[in-house]
Each structure stands twice: as C-alpha cells, then as structure tokens.
Amino acid sequence: MDASPDTPRNFPDPAEGRRSTLTSIAVNSGLIVVQVAVGMLAHSQALVADAVHSLSDVVSDVVVLVAGKHGLKAPDADHPYGHRRFETAASLMLGALLVIVGVAMLWNAFTRLQHPADLHTVGVAALAVALLALCVKELLFRYMLRIARRLRSSLLAANAWHARSDAASSLVVAAGIVANLAGFPLADPLAALIVGIMIARVGAKFFLAAFNDLMDRAVDARDEERIRAHLASTPGVLGVHRLKTRKMGDMIWVEVDLEMDASLTIAQGHAIAEEARKRVMQHEPVLDVMTHFDPVWSRQTPADDNRQASNPDAKPPLRPAARR
C-alpha cells in the first residue's frame, strides 16, 4: 500500500534507535567505572582521559534521547514546520561539549608533560583495560552505525562515530601504555594529549555540520539529483527547475517549480504535483515538498533545450500553444 502523500517515507520504528542509545549508555557507564578505577590505581592519565571520553559519550547519549523525543513532536501553532530542528540544535550542543572536553584534556596533558619527574610507570592492568575498551567500543560503533543507517538518523550516526572515535582513542591509549611499560614515561601523557585532540576534532566536525543545517545549507548534490529525478519521472511533469532543499533535522524540506502543460486544468495540475510530492516522500527522507505549477505552452526548441541544460534552474520559455 502506498504511503499517504502527507507523510514522509515510512522508516523503521524509532524505538530501535532509543534501544541502541540505551545500550550505549549502559556499556559506557560500565567502562567509565572500570577505566577510572584502574587508571587511578595504575597511574595512567591516558586511561583516565579515555574514561572522560566515555563520559562524554554518556552525556551525548542523553542528548540524543532527549532530542529524539522532542524532535518527533507534531507541528503546532508556535512551530508550524515541526520540531525537527531540535535534533540539529542538540548536535550543535554536543559538538560544543566535545570541543570543550577535548581542550580541557589537552591542557591537563600538557601540564603533566611540563613535570616529567612526577610521572609514574603505568601498571599492566591499565593495558588490559585499554584493550578491553578498544574491543567493546568498536563493537558498539558497528552496532550503532547499523541502526543509524537503517533509521537514516544523522544524530544517531554522529553518536556512532563518536563511539568509533572512542575506539580509536582506546587504541592510542593502549599504545601509550605499552610505550610507558617499555621505559618511556612521557608516552602516557602524550597518549592523553592525542586523545584530547581527537575529541576536540570530532566535536568541531559535529558543530560545523549542525551549524550548516541551522543556516539552511542545501543537501549535497547527489541527494538533490535523486530528488530531482523522482520529480522529473512523474507522469505529467515536463521539467523541473528552481529546486531548493534544506535540512530539517534528519529530514529534508523541498521547494520546486514543476513545468506542466498549460492546457491542464488547475485540478489536473494539482493532481500531478501531489503525485510528484508523494513519489519523493516515499523514496527519500523528505519531510514535505512545496510545489509551484509553471505552465509550458508548447515544446521547447533545440536552442531552448541547450539553454535549459546549461542552466537547469532557469525558467522555461512560454510559447503560444500550437493550433490544432
């Protein structure tokens, strides 16, 4: 059965996304306890830094849960376009949080490097915990990314890649601990320094991506071309121009001018536009499509076709209808 034209494509139950986020919270909470305890007992600043990274994961997971709940609320009088931007705002705050955490870790590690005499040899238990965290976080990343792609959720995807950055940081921590055990005491704070850089970098990427969405940046060319193809393939649509897109959380808002035969009635043109709208919303994560009917009174000449090909957004020429 076709989806209603008033609803976007049916995606899997978002409860699946909530379950993946709750799983991440449980896993990271357990890792935090172990990493902090062993890191302090084994004198590993890098392992404690990795625990801070895990803590930022828990905070980001909570943000994801709250954003997911509010972002799916129906439009109301104060928010006629819905609440999808709540997810974008949450991603923006998450990115800022990661930058702050990363910079703080950088400062702490840099301070430790200024006093090498105070550094200790790290205990072997820290290496075992770092390797355990590496394996657990990599598995968690793969699980969360699979769910994010299935749900087409940018926020869940960002959270999954945050888990991957955690796995990478655990690898750095393990390498630093191995070097420390081999007789290089500076390796542990250096590993903590690298982890701080990784966290700040990931946060900056999240922040910039969310900022671009809030600034109504268009979707990438590949997504836009797919949307254009769905519109153009609709029976009765003679051409597509002035296609505009912008992100609304995980969804896309579309505005477009559709070229149709000028001899059509208003009702016929409306039916074609609705069919084009439904096609796009069934196949792409599109929240809504605002269409405008541009009448075309006759077929275009080859010169018109060349001009249209060089400038797809240009309006088509209006020519008198041919006499029958």
From TrEMBL:
<feature type="domain" description="Cation efflux protein transmembrane">
    <location>
        <begin position="23"/>
        <end position="215"/>
    </location>
</feature>
<feature type="transmembrane region" description="Helical">
    <location>
        <begin position="89"/>
        <end position="110"/>
    </location>
</feature>
<comment type="similarity">
    <text>Belongs to the cation diffusion facilitator (CDF) transporter (TC 2.A.4) family.</text>
</comment>
<keyword id="KW-0813">Transport</keyword>
<dbReference type="InterPro" id="IPR002524">
    <property type="entry name" value="Cation_efflux"/>
</dbReference>
<feature type="domain" description="Cation efflux protein cytoplasmic">
    <location>
        <begin position="222"/>
        <end position="295"/>
    </location>
</feature>
<dbReference type="GO" id="GO:0016020">
    <property type="term" value="C:membrane"/>
</dbReference>
<dbReference type="Pfam" id="PF01545">
    <property type="entry name" value="Cation_efflux"/>
</dbReference>
<protein>
    <submittedName>
        <fullName>Cation-efflux pump</fullName>
    </submittedName>
</protein>
<dbReference type="InterPro" id="IPR036837">
    <property type="entry name" value="Cation_efflux_CTD_sf"/>
</dbReference>
<keyword id="KW-0812">Transmembrane</keyword>
<dbReference type="InterPro" id="IPR027470">
    <property type="entry name" value="Cation_efflux_CTD"/>
</dbReference>
<dbReference type="Pfam" id="PF16916">
    <property type="entry name" value="ZT_dimer"/>
</dbReference>
<dbReference type="GO" id="GO:0008324">
    <property type="term" value="F:monoatomic cation transmembrane transporter activity"/>
</dbReference>
<feature type="transmembrane region" description="Helical">
    <location>
        <begin position="190"/>
        <end position="208"/>
    </location>
</feature>
<dbReference type="InterPro" id="IPR050291">
    <property type="entry name" value="CDF_Transporter"/>
</dbReference>
<keyword id="KW-0472">Membrane</keyword>
<dbReference type="InterPro" id="IPR027469">
    <property type="entry name" value="Cation_efflux_TMD_sf"/>
</dbReference>
<feature type="region of interest" description="Disordered">
    <location>
        <begin position="297"/>
        <end position="324"/>
    </location>
</feature>
<feature type="transmembrane region" description="Helical">
    <location>
        <begin position="122"/>
        <end position="145"/>
    </location>
</feature>
<dbReference type="InterPro" id="IPR058533">
    <property type="entry name" value="Cation_efflux_TM"/>
</dbReference>
<keyword id="KW-1133">Transmembrane helix</keyword>
<feature type="transmembrane region" description="Helical">
    <location>
        <begin position="166"/>
        <end position="184"/>
    </location>
</feature>
<feature type="compositionally biased region" description="Pro residues">
    <location>
        <begin position="314"/>
        <end position="324"/>
    </location>
</feature>
